[in-house]
Amino acid sequence: MLPILIQQLLNGLSIASVITLIAVGVTLIFGLTGIINFAHGEFLMIGSFVTWLAVQAGTGFVPALVIAILAVALMGLVLERGLFRFTLTRPTNGFIVSLGLIVVLQHVVILFFGPNQKSIPRPLAGVWDVGGVRIASVRVMVILVTIAVVAMTFVMITRSRYGRALRAAVEDRDTAALMGIPVRRYITGVFVLGSALAGLGGALLIALFPVTPFTGGTMVMKGFAVALMGGLGNLTGAVVAGLILGIVEGFSAGYGFSEWTDAYSFGLMILVLLVRPNGLFGGTSGPKMA
Amino acid sequence: MRSLLLRSASAALCLAASAYSASAQDADTIKIGVVAAESGAFVSAGHTLPAGVGLAVKEINDAGGVKIGDKTYKIELLKRDDRTDIATAIAATQELVRDDKVAAIFGSESHDFTLAMAKITQPAKVIHFAGNSTLAKVLNPQSVAPGGEDHYLFQSEPQEFQRSGSTARGVLSLLTPLVGHPLKKSVVIVGNDATGQFLTSYYVKALKAEGQEVPEVIAYPPDTTDFSPFLTRAKSLNPDVVHFWYNGDSTLTALPQALELGVAPSYFLFGVDPGIWKERGLSADVPVAMSCVPICWGESSNANAKTYFSNYFAAGAPKGVTSSVSLLYYDYVHFLADAWEKAGTLDPDATVAALESMHHKGVVSDDLSFNASHQVTHATEVCAAAPGGAITCAMQQPPAEAPN
């Protein structure tokens, strides 16, 4: 029974890594810019499809991953400049725009690539058997990449000049602007960074599982749940909440009523938000408008 | 003023002429509709419906059309995407029935959508074909009799106890020699939605009727991508076979994870064509059975299927996980055209009478016919991929009666 228990713990960590990567993008964009981008899941899906295209074209997984990050970051730049910028003072409009984007992006992908699943060969095929516990090397890779990316993002947001200016802008946009901080440009920067993380998440996702044009929808719900549980804009919160959610999912599927897995996760989110409305670690409620 | 009047009169005459022309064109055309998920969660099955129906319509029109009495009609196909949303399916059906006045509707791929659609098609006397194995609760000799609530509804897939029975028997008979020892314990992993629950209740009975111990049915939330906790749970039960029952996309997501975790010495994938297995270059170090709905694309033992699928893909249909689902509809467009010709009229009651009395030679079976409850019966094909990659397929006849 012990190997099964350890296996479920590892399964939970693996689930947590993908959710955390999405949640970090969501928490940055939602928490620091106030843009409620429910199409973030579609950004992730497009990252997967770009990776698939690149691999189909003969590139290796790593160059394909880089192409996916760049492509989705560019898409984020275009959409922020072309759409979301005009909704900054009316977040509800931005929310509705993002809902519309979900349908548009899904149908664009269907138009060009069809509705069917896409998959790539596993970039790492090895599976280690340690005392009856099976560890897939590709899952270890995803966990390690997630840890590295989250750590780098954390350092950038908390230690760099850019991060300090960004947090100042979250507190009070007008005062930050008067202090010479180019708030609009910083918002674009955060949106592009969050989009790039979605591109990375998409590339890692298709390394693990086949994707469809509809993959993003389910993933983004969990991303938002984790971002809210951890505290909006709080990277530590996103990581801890991602871990909790991943392990709850793993163990509920393994030992509880398996069909209730999502219900456990979202029930936990509701409970946390009732007890701690600003999330486990506290967070912003988006930038304060003048 | 006089000039203006003349111009107005000319314009009116032109409009009248074009309207007459349009109505004459309509009079030479039979409209039929298809409602299916061309987007959304059921897309992998749904997109095959318009593709299969469209191919049949093209073949009929290319052959000259439908000859009714001394008049020949072309068929016009109207396609509607239900976006895997029941409200959209209902709206699309209303539009096709009330505005477009279709003579027949094909769809949907989902049982509960079909029931909702039938509430519109049946009072309007629109012939309705649904490839759902699960309509036994509404289709019976009384409900399909003239004046009955579902007189114009036809089930173009065998009943679920028949499909499950053929599938369970086929899976176990193909896997046993490949595994090399008797298969005694089965675990079923299934999506937790209405269709998944319904289908599994029959499949578990079918497995037990074949002597299998089924210690647990593990349900997962629809849209699951990471199956590892569910699979680890299955592994703890030491099964001989893990059955991924419904649907094809989830199944193909789960299998590589199961192989990594070493869950069982053999697997069964429901609703996965061997064609997609080969297309994607999939492989496994243990035997994997696949079942098609109803005849396999890729490695079929049915000679007609090879020709059908080459025409199907040549017509532009995408190579999907369950391309074979298109066969639950393709044959019945031809069947319906034959029924119109036999009835000598488009009258729905005469058409139903013709459909009830006819036998049709299709791809799925040389002898397709409807029973007294408007349901078809035919064999289901099951295939198995050996660890070396060789795929063998066999047609499995359905059981005569449901297991207790």
From TrEMBL, chain A:
It holds the Pfam family BPD_transp_2. InterPro entries: ABC_transp_permease, BCAA_transport_permease. GO terms for cellular component: plasma membrane. GO terms for molecular function: transmembrane transporter activity. It is a multi-pass membrane protein. It is found in: Cell membrane. Keywords: Amino-acid transport, Cell membrane, Membrane, Transmembrane, Transmembrane helix, Transport. The chain crosses the membrane at residues 12-40, 60-79, 91-113, 133-157, 186-211, 223-251, 263-281. Belongs to the binding-protein-dependent transport system permease family. LivHM subfamily. This is Branched-chain amino acid transport system permease protein. It comes from Kaistia hirudinis.
From TrEMBL, chain B:
GO terms for biological process: amino acid transport. Residues 29-381 form the Leucine-binding protein domain. It comes from the Bacteria. Keywords: Amino-acid transport, Signal, Transport. Residues 1-24 form the signal peptide. Pfam families: Peripla_BP_6. The keyword RNA-binding does not apply. InterPro entries: BCAA_transport, Leu-bd, Peripla_BP_I. Belongs to the leucine-binding protein family. This is ABC-type branched-subunit amino acid transport system substrate-binding protein.
